[in-house]
Design brief:
344 residues; 10 strands; two-stranded antiparallel ribbon; alpha/beta
């Protein structure tokens, strides 16, 4: 599989990344190991996880995903994979993760616990899972100054990353669920103070959420920050399984109100129906349509795939070889113009 460098980090990652948020909740350790093995067989060398995983986040399973990956890593040469994890941002009802803050102290603590759970001496890519400051994210569509709150300055966060890099515990750094302003601020402070530049940003990107194209794509291009596209199937909505069967088992039905409620908005279901119909009239599966769209975007460095079975993972990876016809791309654009970003 083709590989690409993340920013100027020197990390060469596969154009598909294996997401792991189901490991320890919807997937057992054995099932997770089977997915990891299959991903490597298909040429994927990039694995993404987070200290707060699995989802639905809860105190009883906190850290289980990293532990499962750690037991798998014991039987693999460490240098065969690029391993990414995330430090949690300020508490979103997850008081069991330290003191619920995002600052230098918590970044250092997160690295130490992640290293122990993963059973490794270093993390290839360490990411801030969501901003500490007030910023629109997770379904909040507009910036609200009334929600301002204290937060650690970017100088402090990059300073902590610098210390970890010098200690050999982290090779590169990134952000997640960030805005164009945030990426610019990280780039400006790094340049000004001689601190590490972020190599990547991990944001949602799929046919029903093209908010990346509202300025963030240009920022990433000009600042050499690689986009890692997560949720390319919109939490399964773009598979059409939930519009075909409203009671289908999966995250939107298992955790409808407590985890990413934006994916159960009426407009999200309407979008899923329209993309399903387009896929089927174009001779494609809904999964292939959505993933081929994401894979083809010039600004996407790597697409993060999550699955609950090897069979799902196989279909997701197979879609990488599909190139959408021009008329299908035009039809996707028309739907987007009429129904823009319902789960943003």
């Amino acid at each position: 599989m083709e590989r690409i460098e993340l920013g100027a980090s020197g990390l060469k990652v596969s154009r598909i990344c294996l997401g792991t948020m189901t490991f320890g909740e919807q997937n057992t350790e054995a099932q997770a190991h089977a997915q990891l093995d299959y991903a490597l067989e298909r040429g994927i060398n990039f694995i993404d996880t987070a200290e707060m995983y699995p989802v639905q986040p809860r105190a009883g399973t906190y850290g289980a995903t990293e532990k499962i990956i750690g037991t798998w890593l014991k039987r693999r040469p460490r240098d065969t994979v690029i391993l990414a994890t995330n430090v949690a941002g300020p508490s979103r009802g997850m008081g069991w993760i330290r003191d619920g803050k995002l600052d230098a102290t918590n970044i250092r603590a997160a690295i130490e616990t992640s290293l122990r759970r993963l059973g490794t001496d270093y993390i290839d890519l360490h990411q801030i899972h969501w901003p500490g400051r007030n910023a629109p994210m997770f379904g909040q569509n507009v910036f609200d100054p009334a929600k301002e709150r204290p937060s650690a300055p970017v100088e402090e966060l990059l300073g902590a990353f610098d210390q970890l890099a010098r200690a050999g515990k982290v090779r590169a750094f990134g952000v997640s669920n960030e805005t164009a302003w945030g990426v610019c601020e990280f780039a400006k402070v790094a340049e000004r103070d001689g601190l590490p530049r972020i190599a990547s940003i991990q944001n949602a990107c799929h046919p029903m959420n093209r908010s990346v194209e509202q300025g963030l794509d240009e920022v990433c291009f000009r600042e050499n920050v690689s986009l890692l596209a997560y949720s390319p199937l919109a939490f399964g909505q773009l598979t059409a399984k939930y519009v075909d069967d409203p009671r289908a088992r999966g995250r939107p039905n298992l955790f409808p109100k407590t985890w990413s409620p934006r994916y159960v908005r009426p407009a999200t279901y309407e979008g899923a129906r329209r993309y399903r119909d387009l896929a089927r009239t174009s001779g494609l599966s809904p999964v292939t349509l959505a993933l081929a769209c994401c894979y083809s975007r010039w600004f996407v460095a790597s697409t993060i795939l999550g699955a609950t079975s090897v069979e799902q993972l196989r279909e997701n990876i197979d879609a990488y070889s599909t190139r959408l016809r021009d008329d299908v791309v035009s039809a996707i654009d028309r739907i987007h113009a009429e129904l823009s970003n319902p789960p943003q």
